[in-house]
């Protein structure tokens, strides 16, 4: 018992001893820098200038630009710096005396302050400003003129200080439109000096503070994309009215231009006359006419198209107002005389459209859709193997799943189709057609009425429908389609014609057909942007309405051409009584 009393007294004494100790202050093992950054702002808050401090740095120098805004010629003056708003980013438990509020940072003024860190260690800091001239010495834009009104915009690679002028043509010596960093200079000055850019040129850009950078401007071509056209590369080559070509040629063209044949050199317009009109494929300039009187003129020179090797085909129109053989004439070039190529009794009215995939000099598949009531939803097909037509008489192919007949001859006029192969008759094909009546299909969007297909993808082996690119209003007419595999990507080109100026059509769509179409819907007036559609011309820009008239026949045409080197895809299209238009797309990997 006595031992327990002694033990209790001992514990109490120890507790009293421990309870009288002062606890150690909890501090980090190493003190931080104290001030991390200091910011000075103009009194009106229009700009802030910050300096980040390294550990151990006690001289705070605020960088102030020589001009403000830096792109202007407004010199920073003492009045602007006389009352600068100040703030600092501090570590925890760090204090500044006197507090930072406003300072006069005019040149020559140096302010001192005492900074107490977490360990209560004090250090004197100084703050001053330094007005600095800009060290920026970059080229930000470099544009040189090209042929006509075109320009070549240089692609600037800052890491290598190079400016690439992408052009296949020879550039005439010229001045350039150039932008450089504010208050920098460039020597020689391409804005005032005529320079030959067909060879490499060197320019030195010197900043306001004397810092310099040397740029090389080179005319070159970048690499090629692995697939398809470069997004955003579309470039309009020309847009000319059909009526102006009629004036230039002296040929009556109103309601008479139904088709275009596009080659690498020329675009040829059928005219229902004894001559066709030729324009330059790159500029749209009027070249002249070619005598096609061998066809017989009138409805015998109704439609024209071209193959991959620049041969031009001309066909007549056979309908219930015309009897006789269906004929196709061949021209070996835009200026060559026509030679009879096909002559047969067509088992159905046709000739409003004629398509060819491939070349008559090698292998080709030629198609003509029927437009008469008794042969609805059928087309004629010829094949060319090793440069020889296999038969004057065509195969007759029946499609299923879609229709271009609804009980009226007029409505079956507007249909076009093209194969995806020049050798395989069982390959798929694409159909562009006018829709009405039983051509409608249910709309998958709940609460909306039936829809028409703008472009139908057909199974070449069965004639059935694979899928459709949809949403075409029934008031507008799809009547031309073309197909190409360009730079490993399959494309279709299809038009959308405004007949009587309702104001929602006259468009052409470049459609990527790789994989199933993505369904695209709009409330009214055609597909929206994105998805399978890679490019579309603006509504009402090139149709008859834009030319101040109407397209009563609801007619137009589209065509693809690939450049000889495979770097450019050209699309050409025409709206009857409207415009003939050329666009260029490239494959540059930039």
Concise structural overview:
By secondary structure, this protein is mainly beta. Helix content is 6%, strand content 39%.
Polypeptide structure, described:
With 590 residues, the chain is mainly β. The chain folds into three domains: 35-132, Immunoglobulin-like, CATH 2.60.40; 139-220, Immunoglobulin-like, CATH 2.60.40.2340; 235-586, Methylamine Dehydrogenase, Chain H. The chain has four helices and 41 strands. A five-stranded mixed sheet has the order 11-12-16-15-14, with no helix packed on it. The protein is elongated. It starts with a helix and ends with a strand.
- Could you name the ranges where pLDDT drops below 50 across 5 or more consecutive residues? 1-31, 519-530
Percent helix among the residues? under 10%
CATH topology of the largest domain: Methylamine Dehydrogenase, Chain H
Shape: elongated
Can you tell me the CATH class of the largest domain?
A: Mainly Beta
**How are strands sequenced across the largest beta sheet?**
11-12-16-15-14
The separation of the N and C termini measures 96 Å
What does the largest sheet look like?
Answer: 5 strands, mixed
Number of helical elements: 4
When the domains are counted, the total is 3
> What percent strand?
35-45%
Mean pLDDT: 85
CATH hierarchy: architecture of the largest domain: 7 Propeller
Radius of gyration: 38 Å
Find the structural class using helix and strand composition.
mainly beta
Total beta-strand segments:
41
